[in-house]
Amino acid sequence: MKIKLLSAALTYGIVCSVAQADQTSPVIGLHHKTPELIAFTNATIHSQPGKVIENATLVINNGRVQSVIKNGQVPPGAKHVDLQGYTIYPGFIDAYSDYGITFDYPTNDHRGPTYRIDRIGGNAANGAIHAQQNWVDHFVPDSKKAKALLNNGFTVVQSAKQDGLLQGRAMTVSLADGIANDLIYNAKAQHFGSFDKGSSAQDYPSSLMGSIALLRQTFSDANWYQDAYGKINLQDGNQIEYNSALAALAKIEQQGLVFGTDNEHSLLRAAKLINQFDIDVTLLGSGFEYARLDEISQLNAKLIVPLAFADKPELGIAQGRNIVLADLRHWERSPGNLATLENTDL
Questions:
Q1: What is the DSSP letter of 335?
Q2: Could you tell me if 224 and 330 lie in one domain?
Q3: N or C end of the chain, less CB within 10 A?
Q4: Which domain holds residue 78?
Q5: 45, 63, 90 - which closes a domain
Q6: Which of 182, 155, 174 is nearest to 20 (CA)?
């Protein structure tokens, strides 16, 4: 209960100041610009992994951490909250989310095979490539979903629509209350991707092998496009066409890619593919990484590993006859998956 009350107190202080931080909307009527300065004292604060500050004073100025000091003084004019006996942890960041995205791609009512899509605004020739999307342009805060995440300790998310092979640029946003403009920390964060072509109505790709081939071709085309765009095609004398998806991938090596996978085999496939292009990649794990630990520990990649463990299998008389050994093995080993990875050189 103490942790919940503390979270609510901290969230309230930050949310109030964020809600009052809007700087570009027209002001209607009387308003106040009283600075929101809050000092939390006498707390035990985990400021970073392995670092604990006892009797600490945390000062929050207009929604941002100003200082964390042992036995610090309360600044003049600050609201004072005594947190004797409480422990403060930094909020979690969900690096692979679709929070605040309600956008849907148009449905295709065409019957029969679909081999081509309409080329609109310089989009890619394949409907599974959405690299040109900037999801900050579609961000709509959702207080109900934000509350659920806050109650689980998350305060910030990196979010994009998870649809397609290359899904576009994510955004990094706060889960506080307020207008969208005030909640955006990074309007252009990492790219998102996967092996699933998503809502694309095109027949190709129709297999995992096809998805890998299309991704490899797209990364190669993006490298070619940076040198070719604006020049004349010697074969037909025309200028190279504009392609917004390839243009958006110009600096993906530095901008980074978060790539979703659903099992340990696809994780290794993704790493092998993406490392060919020297892209700073973060791979979404499945909780089965222990099964191919030796290979995964050698990867040049960062991992996002789920904390959801396998449910206990039903072992009644009827169910026990049909239980699969692999399910029992995963139920036993999944709780130690993260610790196993931590003990490697990954």
A1: G
A2: yes
A3: N
A4: 2-22+33-90
A5: 90
A6: 182
The amino acid at 231: K
Please provide residue 232's backbone torsions phi and psi, each rounded to the nearest 5 degrees. Answer: -95, 135
Question: Percent of the chain having pLDDT more than 90?
Answer: 68
Reported as a single tens digit per residue, the pLDDT across 250-264 is 999 999 999 999 999
Q: Which residue in 203, 336, 114 sits closest to 211, CA to CA?
A: 203
CATH label of the domain that carries residue 66: 2.30.40.10
How many whole angstroms separate alpha carbon 256 and alpha carbon 328? 37
pLDDT (tens digit, 9 = 90+) per residue, 82-102?
999 999 999 999 999 999 999
Phi, psi torsion values for 261, nearest 5 degrees: -130, 160
Q: What average pLDDT is seen over the chain? A: 88
Q: Are residues 81 and 104 in the same domain?
A: no
Specify the pTM: 0.85
Asked if 85 and 99 sit in the same domain, the reply is no
How far is it, in rounded angstroms, from Cα 153 to Cα 340? 24
3-state SS, residue 13: helix
Give every CB contact of residue 260 below 8 A, 6+ residues apart in sequence. Answer: 96, 162, 192, 193, 194, 196, 284
Q: Which two structure tokens, joined as six digits, stand for 337?
A: 């998956």
